[in-house]
Amino acid sequence: MLGQKERHIKKRMEGRVIINRLMMVLFGVATAIGLIFLVLLFYRVLTQGIGYLNWDYLSNFPAPYPEEAGIYAGLIGSIMLMVIVAIFSVMVGVGSAIYLEEYAPKNRMTEFIRINIQNLAGVPSIVFGLLGLTFFVYLFSFGYTLIAGGLTMALLILPVIIVAAQEAVRSVPAEMKEASYGMGATKWQTISRVILPAAVPGILTGTIIALSRAIGETAPLIIVGAAAAIYTLPESLLAKYTVMPIQIYNWTSRPAEEWQFVAGAGIIVLLVVLLLMNSIAVWIRNKYQHRL
Amino acid sequence: MDKSLQSEGKSFNVQQMIESNKKKTSIGEKIERIIPTLLFLCAAVSVVTTVGILFTFLRESIGFFSDVSIIDFYTGSQWSPWSGEFGVAPLIGGTLLITLIATIVAVPLGLMSAIFLSEYASDKARRVIKPVLEVLAGIPTVVYGYFALTFVTPMFQFFLPDLGIFNALSGGFVVGIMILPMVASLSEDAMNSVPNALREAAYGLGSTKLEVVVKVVLPAAFSGIVASIVLAISRAIGETMIVTIAAGATPNLTLNPTESIQTMTAFIVQAATGDTSFGSTIYYSLYAVGMTLFVFTLVMNLIAQYISRKFREEY
């Protein structure tokens, strides 16, 4: 026979178990909401844009009529911009990472550089746009050109590349370094012939992920003057240019409904490029993950 | 004897070899000495960038504050730069309204997702769901803006027929969806690093899973969770394209989410795309607004770093 107290406890326990179960469902639903919006977003973009996506769209310049408008200038512009960004940010980023991991003395200066990089990663992208506007567009008088946009974006993703490269350099086993020193190699010989080759997959993966962030960035490029109406491809670093996100933004902000479809098609192209870049990054990571 | 004669015949001796080797090492030594300096210069670029940002803001803002008094800028409540009214309050208000809506969306959903992934979901489910959720963080913001304008606003208009095309509600909501994976992923990391011994001790005392989560895991992961929320808020404050596309361009000091507003970031885009001539007051106002934005996000980032450093639980 159960006493009053036991019955009370049993009842409370049932309640606790039921609440546990209810909350589990609630947590599951919350997780599903995020995923549902992801699916909705893809579904919306696909259904809106697919009708305008064809070869003409990929090979046409911007045009005043939705049926004739194309993403060609944006696509090529984005690729050219990314090449500039990659060259600059990888050189400086990998250099910084090697300095911080292998050469930097443990002092206040090093600590300051480290904290500074961490803080730069949290600066809104539009602030980099203002930096680029003052320095690259006006002070260096590049104007609204490819090189001004490229340098601005390179500075924007530099913190991401430094952190990725640092991790890649750090994950090279100490035995390999010591073996190299043991053979009489100097510090730079060890870095250039042992550490860097071993760190290349990690650096590449980090770089591609950083570039895939840069290729979707719009705000800083609006500030440093990427143009919307471009009817030729940039012929030099000092030429006017456009990129895919700028075209998409421009089309999205037009009132007529057809332009939403044109923008949707542009988004599909942008997302496919992003997907390709991320797949390559994942492929590199998986291929070289367990080599060391 | 023969050997040395041969060598002399080719005018080739050991001393010369040593000399030439010495020269080689001296080149090597030079490289060895130059490289650290070169690499230091690379690392200095990031410091120069920060200095550049500060220099940009100080120089151009001084230009602005010689036209408009700093007191009027921060206390005025009217922002209409094209008719000479520079009170930044409506822009700050717009930014905070968007941030508030985004936080209301992202924090509960993000935390609940994190709890589900870290405590309830199987290992296999987590390894699938977490990366998929993180895809949300990799989608370009211009795409979110498009989604907010062409899908979320019409969806809200179904429930709120009076809702205008540009409104803070759908802008803020979509910013919330954008920062959701940041809250979820970073909080999940924090919860995951709570040692299992703590959980098992609580189970041993007869707790249900929920009680373990609420009374053990959440308190133990508290600093990481708060840091993730602060970082996400900082992202929301600096978010540009979603609010530019979907939230409107009407500086408006309001708490009503159905109205069209303008954030600090959206004004910067508007002024930069319009025909703003170099050196005009509006041109300089870009930097005064940008500096205010920068200070907001910097303070948030410093708070996040302080929290995760100061209150980090070491296990």
TrEMBL record, chain B:
A biological-process GO annotation: phosphate ion transport
Cited InterPro entries: MetI-like, MetI-like_sf, Phosphate_PstC
Coiled coil, from the record: none
Compartment(s) where it occurs, according to its Swiss-Prot or TrEMBL record: Cell membrane; Membrane
Gene3D superfamilies for the chain: MetI-like (1.10.3720.10)
GO function terms (MF aspect): phosphate transmembrane transporter activity
Domain ABC transmembrane type-1: 92-304
Free-text function comment from the UniProt entry: Part of the binding-protein-dependent transport system for phosphate; probably responsible for the translocation of the substrate across the membrane.
Family: Belongs to the binding-protein-dependent transport system permease family. CysTW subfamily.
Protein name: Phosphate transport system permease protein
